[in-house]
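Chapter summary example: a protein plus uracil.
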Amino acid sequence: MEQQLRKSYLDAMEITQWVVRRPPAPEMEKRPAQPLAPEPATAAKAEPPARPSTKPAADHDAPPAWLNEAPLLDEECQPGEASDAAEQLPPRSIVADLGWDALQQHISACKACELHCSRKQTVFGTGSPQADLLIIGEAPGADEDHLGEPFMGRAGKLLNAMLKAIGFERSQVYIANILKCRPPDNRDPHVDEVSHCRPYLMRQIELINPKVILAVGRVSAQNLLESTDTLGRLRGRTHHFGAGNIPLIATYHPTYLLRSPEQKAKSWQDLQQVLTLLQQ
Ligand code: URA
């Protein structure tokens, strides 16, 4: 990728690039100082416009009114009581035969766990079902529950910038989550919720058959790798997923990177590794 373009993407991720200082050439001293990096506004302009089908991102400076709306509770729901999930979930063999559209329909009608009581809608995934790169996050949050698409909030904006840094538009990859429904108050997914949703994600992976999986965040990495190791231990090496041995890289969740921007340099290393694997 052209140096200047790469630099503007790294700037969009707010990753500082270290440069070797050299003594200025005598004639340079006469010129007015030039900034090493474009101003943030310039970097933002360098980003191509969002693809037309992407729904508009929420304005996070002013929280939208719907964020404070009470959840729509399904009247038949009995939150707190054990669900008869096993009966409601399509048997794994049926899910395993479903095509893309049928799978999406099954998921949108799923009542396998209590999360259907409080969701506004299921969040199936977005992007190209033929993508080489599959990104798997944790679960929808408030923005995603409202808009029906994964990674739409501030974390989504950062994920988009991370993808651009390795040359991808959001529409060129596939983005899905471990869970298809939002856990209330953005709590960690429960074990039973993950296991009810797992056949859906497995079928998505089978149908997409990506070259590389990028697991973002601890919950995604631990569940996909069936490990209890910390993300710090799981990232930094190539794992292999499932019977197809799909190369899998674990990296930090964009939400974590927003809180701990000093870790962005490590996530940049992880993205470079993704790129290397995609090029093999
Ligand atoms: N965080 C996730 O892990 N997934 C989303 O879709 C949004 C935020």
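Key point: Residues 137-141, 144, 150-151, 155, 177, 217 surround uracil (CB under 6 Å).
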